[in-house]
Amino acid sequence: MESNPFPGAQQQHAHQQQEEHFPGPAAAVKELLVSMGAEEHEPRVVNLLVDFMYRYVSDTLQDAETYSEHAGKPPGQVELDDVMLAIQARSAFAFAQPPDQGEIAQLAAVANDKEMPRFPMHKHGLLIPEDKDSLTAQNYQLG
């Protein structure tokens, strides 16, 4: 019996052959990952993204059908406007929207306008701000 100097090589080759034969949606997700620069990833990432895609699309289409029925259309008749409304409603709550850069700049300006607390110069050692100036101070009252 001949021993293989690289025992993992056959398993790796079999794994690569298995990855090459994805079903349609998984192949599209894999191609999308590669096009975005994620060439190395765990195989289960593709399965998780396909699962997310199916769940998102089916939930969105169910929402669109609900909106369509609410608009008085016959059951099962979903139009593009219904789907667009469902996508907008779902994306408003399902995904975190980044804050507006203008709002962030305004908040930063307000925070930066406040004068930093002064520390006494005659103290030695670690200078810690007073409780009223500390971010870890108690900021609530009971009762």
UniProtKB/TrEMBL annotation:
UniProt keyword annotation of DNA repair present: no
Compartment(s) of residence: Nucleus
Region (Disordered) residue spans: 1-21
Key words, A-Z: Nucleus, Transcription, Transcription regulation
CDD domains membership: HFD_TAF9
Secretion signal span: none
Record InterPro entries: Histone-fold, TFIID-31, TFIID_subunit_9
Family: Belongs to the TAF9 family.
This protein's name: Transcription initiation factor TAFII31
